[in-house]
Amino acid sequence: MMSFTHPRAIDAVNELKYELQRLYADSSKHSAYQNIPEFVSAELGYTESIDEGWRGDRPRLSFLTECRTPAAGETWLDFGANTGFFALSLAHRFPQTSFLAVEANPNHARFIERVAHYFQMRNVEVIQRAVGLRELPMLPRSDFMLHLNVLHHAGHDFDRELVPERSGFAEYARSYLACLREITSAMLFQVGSNWGGDRNQPLVDVRADAEKLATFEAWLGDSGWTTREIAYAHRREDGRIEYNRLGRQASGQPGESVDSWAFLDQFPGEFYRRPLFLCDGAATKSAECKRSQG
Question: Would the pTM of this model clear 0.85, i.e. be above it?
């Protein structure tokens, strides 16, 4: 990178900022969604406004790095990477770890590539393709996967032929989660409660938090995953949002109702009512995954 005081450097930065803004503003369903990584904003003076009272990425990133630090030589996979907040933020902080960003949207994939190229991040690779249940075994093996808020879009954004109706989603989800164990042994997982993001088609009622927790944890358990941690969003007294392990501010055990879910009522919408699951799973070929592959 050239010094910002050099006229050519200033032109290059302005050109990059314009390109990133254009790619970020892609008019697809999942555009204008993620935060811009802090190191990008600090150096380029480029950011995007996200209503973090409704949804945000930084609290989940903080929780993740508290629980699982990327190690030198490991490969991490960010599935449905969008514009790469997680993959880029982690890759910049942990240069000895390799990061794969899987993203179907070509503009979002290009966004990640342009940032990685400018900052000379040789530990970032982008796989620009749609990956459904049948394509999962084609992905490279990873030591850890981020699978955040992708699965509930099955039947809408991908695999329409495999899950054409909401009634078949639970069976599909179990097969899908079983197949994930073939390509990673640990993951941070989150899924929405509305099928395809459509509030008129709930998989579990948005405010049925105990049922939601039990349902999602059962899908994971039935698919061979062991849940190590469950976390929920909390708003601190200073207004900041953070993810706390279940039991720190809400009593109860995983799969059981807590004393009160009122701590979630302070958040608008559904996003912050989605639990985070930190999971381990032995990488074996399951019968369910075999059937799904035909």
Answer: yes
